[in-house]
Design a protein that fits this description.
Distance between the termini: 78 Å
Order of helices and strands: HEEHEHHEEH
Helix content: 40-55%
Largest sheet: 3 strands, antiparallel
Length: 185
């Protein structure tokens, strides 16, 4: 019995040290990042926004991001935990597809980018694919009386390429894209 207690105590001490080192590395690493681990803060018209948290845009004159399973509440991050075999989930996605096609009639039968109708695992993904932004370009050009070419150039300028050209997909931050859209003349 005494051997087990001593072994358990030693293991506890080792794990405390390992966990402490890990936490120190993560905390220290966050402090050398550009925003010191606080997220990317964007100011627009006197308001403070976090570019790394999805925002809801309802107006037809803005790009829309991914749907959120947590109503864009960063305190309650999480997915719906419903998979593609769940009938209720499939009905929700189909409603989103129908709504998106109704709001973007000029796209006809063009395939709807998946991220425009499905929530991310966190429910707070701030980015969409370049295809997701281009899918909405005609609607926005029409509503804002701009040329499609202007909108496409804006999307191209706001598209973040994969890290080192290799890791991850190209993506567009919806908040930054909409701020740039408001500045477009």
């Amino acid at each position: 019995m005494k051997n087990h207690i001593v072994s358990a105590f030693r293991l506890t001490l080792v794990m405390l040290v390992v966990t402490g080192i890990y936490l120190g590395v993560v905390y220290g690493g966050s402090k050398i990042l550009p925003n010191k681990g606080n997220g990317e803060i964007v100011y627009n018209k006197g308001q403070k926004f976090y570019a790394n948290i999805g925002q809801e845009f309802k107006s037809e004159k803005y790009f829309h991001g991914r749907p959120s399973s947590v109503n864009y509440n960063a305190a309650g991050s999480g997915g719906s935990n419903k998979g593609p075999s769940n009938k209720e989930y499939l009905e929700i996605v189909q409603k989103r597809i129908d709504t998106l096609k109704m709001k973007n009639p000029e796209m006809g039968n063009t395939k709807v980018p998946v991220e425009l109708v499905t929530a991310s695992g966190s429910g707070l993904d701030p980015d969409i694919s370049e295809e997701g932004a281009l899918y909405q370009a005609k609607r926005i050009a029409k509503v804002r009386n701009l040329s499609e070419e202007q909108i496409q150039n804006l999307i191209n300028n706001q598209t973040e390429k994969p890290f080192l050209g290799l890791f991850g997909p190209s993506k567009v931050n919806v908040l930054k894209l909409n701020i740039a859209l408001d500045q477009l003349k």
